[in-house]
Write a structure and sequence with these properties.
By secondary structure, the protein is α+β, with helices and mostly antiparallel strands. It contains 5 helices and 5 strands.
């Protein structure tokens, strides 16, 4: 017996608060399909998935009982969550590296501007160059403060708190092979067909015996007639 089950997953994520993008339903689909070869090789289950109505519809089919197939969906959900956690951890690490490099770049620019301001000595308060340098320095320090806050958030955020994969309802499992109704129907048709063939064959044998009996009777009558003659 073979059964097929269907479950739907929906992804919720809040990576945008950290300036990270790229985690969506398509990434969830790719993560599910990542386990396709594993299930086919180790559990003899065919795994298919597609995006439908803003959710990822997953199908598992193979020679497993309904309870085992339901458990297979549970294990798949855990594996998908673990894989997405690794994906987000890598994205966070990349964001930390990028933000750290940006902080170093801004720090160098700010220090350069401060050195230029110090090189001016004691200019007049309304000196346009001094005003320009001061404004640029202030902008850089504001950007540095934002990046420092972002870096702190990236370093202290738990990846599992940034996403949720929701299973919509329970997996729906039904039998796909063998199709007993179809098997019974085909068996009935074949039974009638072979029954008719058998009836014709029996009728043919009866006709053959009747002809043989008639031929024997006719032969005896001819012999008796010849003797009398």
């Amino acid at each position: 017996d073979e059964f097929s089950g269907t479950a739907s997953y929906r992804l919720y994520q809040s990576l945008s608060v950290l300036g990270i993008s790229g985690l969506d339903q398509k990434e969830l689909l790719n993560t599910v399909l990542y386990f396709q070869s594993y299930y086919e090789k180790n559990t003899k289950l065919a795994l298919t998935a597609e995006i439908s109505d803003g959710r990822v519809k997953v199908t598992l089919a193979g020679p497993l009982r309904p309870d085992d197939l339901t458990q297979a969906f549970g294990r798949l959900g855990v594996s998908v969550n673990d894989q997405l956690k690794q994906y987000i951890t890598r994205e966070i690490a990349q964001a930390v590296l990028s933000t750290s490099m940006h902080i170093k770049q801004l720090t160098r620019q700010r220090d350069t501007l401060k050195a230029q301001m110090d090189a001016l000595g004691s200019p007049a308060p309304d000196d346009p160059l001094l005003g320009y340098l001061a404004q640029k320095t202030s902008d850089l320090e504001a950007q540095l403060a934002q990046d420092q806050v972002r870096l702190e958030s990236l370093n202290t955020t738990d990846p599992t708190a940034l996403f949720t994969v929701e299973t919509l309802g329970e997996p729906v499992v039904f039998q796909i092979r063998p199709n007993r109704a179809l098997s019974l129907a085909v068996s009935g048709v074949l039974g009638v067909f072979f029954g008719l063939l058998l009836a014709f064959f029996v009728h043919y044998l009866a006709d053959v015996r009747v002809r043989e009996h008639e031929e024997r009777a006719s032969g005896k009558e001819q012999s008796t007639h010849n003797i009398h003659t």
